[in-house]
Fold:
Amino acid sequence: MKAVITVTGKDTVGIIADVSAVCANRGANIREITQNVLGEYFAMIMIAELDGLKIPFADFVDELAALGRTRGLDIHTMHEDIFNTMHHI
Amino acid sequence: MLNTQDILETINMIREENLDIRTITMGISLFDCVSEDEARLCDKIYDKITRRAEHLVSVGQGIEKEYGVPIVNKRVSVTPVSLIGGSLSPDGYLKIAHTLQRAARTLGINFIGGFSALVHKGYTAGARNLISVIPQALAETETVCSSVNVATTKAGINMDAVAQMGHVIKQCAELTADKDSIGAAKLVVFANVPEDNPFMAGAFHGVGEPDSVINVGVSGPGVVASAIKRAGDCDLSELADVIKKTAFKITRVGQLVAKEAASRLDTPFGIVDLSLAPTPAIGDSVAHILEGMGLESCGAHGTTAALAMLNDAVKKGGVMASSHVGGLSGAFIPVSEDAGMIAAVERGALTIEKLEAMTAVCSVGLDMIAIPGDTPDAVISGIIADEISIGVANTKTTAVRLIPAIGKGVGDSVEFGGLLGYAPIIRLNPYSPEKFIGRGGRIPAPIHSLKN
Structure:
């Protein structure tokens, strides 16, 4: 399964590095990154393959959300199926 | 293949437009709990509900976390209690209500529905005893919800029951007068009640249902309102298409959650209820959708037409998105639970007569309407009779959930908090239907030819 990780907030040094580090540590393989900075606002959508995930998905969601809180970012991790069912017949 | 725009649209719906799953409701049959012994019956009911729905809340929370979509309520509905209580005394029925409350507490759910009776053609002893303790049961419990079906299109209207329910609603309000009469907010009077409705207070687990089942109610007035706003000054054909497409997307999320919950709980998937269920939160209002369609205020002339179109488009979009659709499925217009409806009543634009007309084209009825506390029982019965006859004549579900606000009158308001919201007290017609209601008997089933 894949997850969609969205990261938004004030742009600072090392956001991609920090999010990627959590993914690497937990065995999530990053497949795609779309990222933009508008003024000081950082926005990223990351799609990660979770077949090798070493911890339960719910814990992975919590860990990324916690990282977001410590860095003043909004990080949401969602199962890809919610997007697939909504936008594909 | 996911594209950025789709991802952003979904995330925006959830975070900015209040898209949520309103409820995952597990229906549980209590027929195998039947026992002549009152204590044994209660024990079996408690055991069955807490065993079947043991993981309901945790599974709901798990799905919520994984898919990132809020699941606001996890609830249980049971077989109408009048059908399994048999010859119990009124006191015995009261004990079942307390048993349901105890089970709901153990599970951590916020409502349990099914303290119900079906009396559309007449009363059984069980139905009579159950109805007699509804006010006490709703006053002494917090989570138990009750409903009474007083009419069907095939049976006609049981006017003895309509007369009685006017009195019962008033008693419910009186026994909870210190809590803004909230007892009455947990009681619904129905015509053509559906057997698979996941929404409270009217949910119960019908007799034709399997042993247990998962039904899901979606929400999303905010998403529809935003889509209409984005559509700009298009004509109504185009607007209907916009609503259909939006309803499709909302319902797909409901279908996904329903299938996932059913599989994780090892329980059959029942239906997705397509209702647009508002909440008192800003941006989650059905009235604001109608106003977005071009009405100065909900309640203005044109409201019924706008609502009819909205309701139809929501169904057309939703039906294709789900393998099984059921329950109430339509736009809800509960006054206290919808910021736009509250505002429309307060500015004098929305009256009970207009609300009644609106219920002819949408689900589900006169819902969460606060009326003066000194309203005579017969007037409440008159309101019920009118609303129920709309359902019977049009072969649709209609319902009444009125809150006589004891000690208060027009100009005051009642505050329930949470999803139930607050309601300004609405003005009623001052003339009496007492003699008509007092006649009792049954209004015969309507003819289904010579339609005009």
